[in-house]
């Protein structure tokens, strides 16, 4: 197993635990973490000594979203200069964005179709990129205090994996959460079918590990067969096509005035100021 910078891998019998390891950033997902997660999964794939993958986060949260600083830098770098004429614009930014977002979609689908069961253990915040990620896991257990949501949909992006949401929680609830960017608690997430169960914070780690060990009693061939059979039903329902559509529509979203304004504020005053601008109307509506 190679050494990783921003994830940790621990093997305990038939269960391998992959932990996001940026606790000082609440495990905000960046490119390094994405690549290291894929590399770890590749290392753990051969053979059946490891039968179940447990995915968790170090520190106070599972994953509080994408690394906004890295995302902001990417879009600022790729934005055409103000006032540029048509001849100077070069390659279409929309197309480059679509290619990148489809790469993210491929990563999520790889996790979803990975041959070994992947069990997410969620605590703290599971927002933005975090809630996208758990949508590709097979089972999801969370602490009772966990919070779920996709605030970026308010001004600067929709989930690449949006196609999974209606299948899991229904169209009208998916629309509500994305129209508002609101967060929900673990009890509501369990009621909706977004997660398997909410567990007391103190018992979460032991509960998930016990579940992983229970699953690992089943021969790997049987686990793989069952996983891909259930996934096939989701594919028949259009999941894979919908995930790629999520990437395409997200690229379109990134051409909107709201997204441009978010990037403009982030460039001038910082990402935190842009997030404050995004959330201000919702705080006013709640007061």
Automatic annotation (TrEMBL):
InterPro entries tied to this protein: ClpP/crotonase-like_dom_sf, Enoyl-CoA_hydra/iso
The keyword Transcription is assigned to this record: no
Top-rank taxon: Bacteria
Keyword set includes Transcription: no
One Pfam family this sequence matches: ECH_1
SUPFAM superfamilies: ClpP/crotonase
MF term (GO), any: enoyl-CoA hydratase activity
Record-stated family: Belongs to the enoyl-CoA hydratase/isomerase family.
Protein name: Enoyl-CoA hydratase
